[in-house]
Amino acid sequence: MALYWNGRPATLQDLAVPALRNDGHFTTFQLRERAVLGLDLHLQRLDEASRALFGIGLDPDRVRASLRAAVVETGVRDATVRITVVPSALDAQVPLGLLVALSPPAEPGVGPLRLRSFVFQRDTPTIKHVGTFAQFQRQRLAREAGADDALFVDGQGEVVEGSVWNLGLWDGVTVAWPQADALRGTRERLLQAGLAALGVPQAVRPVMLAELDSGMAAFTCNARGQQLIGDVDGRALTVDPGLLALLDRALGTQPRTVVA
Fold first, then answer.
1. Which of 14, 150, 157, 195 meets the CB 3.0–4.6 Å disulfide criterion with 138?
2. What is the C-alpha separation between 178 and 160, in angstroms, rounded?
3. Measured between alpha carbons, how far is residue 202 from residues 199, 241, 245 in Å?
4. How far is 135 from 125, CA to CA, in rounded Å?
5. Phi, psi of 227 (to 5 degrees)
6. pLDDT, tens digit, 9 for 90 and up, residues 59-73
């Protein structure tokens, strides 16, 4: 893994604040042949979250320059990229610190996921913040129970989101997206734009846990990609391989930005 702080290789002192203080937000994406799918959405996310949490905007050109420096100096072409924004206690001239982490590229898992549901909603759910203990604890509990991952629902059984992903439902005609208060992922937004470009009907509506059964297909989506859902709490869903192909076609309509 390569770590860059404000556009240069990070030192131990640079990493003290992001390592020891649970305060900040981030975005994650895949770099392929030095290009990023939906880069503008990631830059928008970082700026909006910085304004919401710290009252300070984040210049997208600064983020691009930091990302470019890390990619050029390491020479990587493919990587998983995480950009974290934290308050900078050491430099009053740069109130927000920018940490770019490059790690090996990642792909979605193979085979349909088995999910275990939990009544849970993240704190400040619309921001991709670094307070991730609670969601990963439920992911661990799901795996201990024999599932692959955790699905979060509210007290009325309305589907919210997954541990680190959004989900969509497919009835063979329309893609339905849960409207609950959750983090709206960049991959979700890219898929929505791509499906609209293909003319595929979509709906944003309340999705109840009880809907996830054999009469419906469903998928997860995040920066790694898309994966089908095989069952939820032991109830089998329809597994439709054609759905993944449709989602890939939708993503193919969206722009990629070369960063270096």
1. 150
2. 7
3. 9, 19, 17
4. 11
5. -145, 140
6. 999 999 999 999 999
pLDDT score recorded for residue 93:
66
Element of type H or E holding 35: strand 35-37
* Statement: residue 115 has pLDDT above 80: yes
**Residue whose C-alpha is closest to residue 201's, from 254, 166, 246:** 246
Chain centroid offset of residue 74 CA = 24
Separation between Cα atoms, residue 179 and residue 235, nearest integer Å: 22
CA 70 to chain centre: 21
| CA–CA distance, 197 with 5 (Å, rounded to integer) | 38
Cα dihedral 109, 245, 45, 49 sign: negative
Contact in structure between 37 and 251 (CB atoms under 8 Å):
yes
CA–CA separation, 215 and 213 (whole Å): 5
Cut 0.90: pTM above it: yes
Residue type, 101: A
Average pLDDT estimate for 153-178: 97
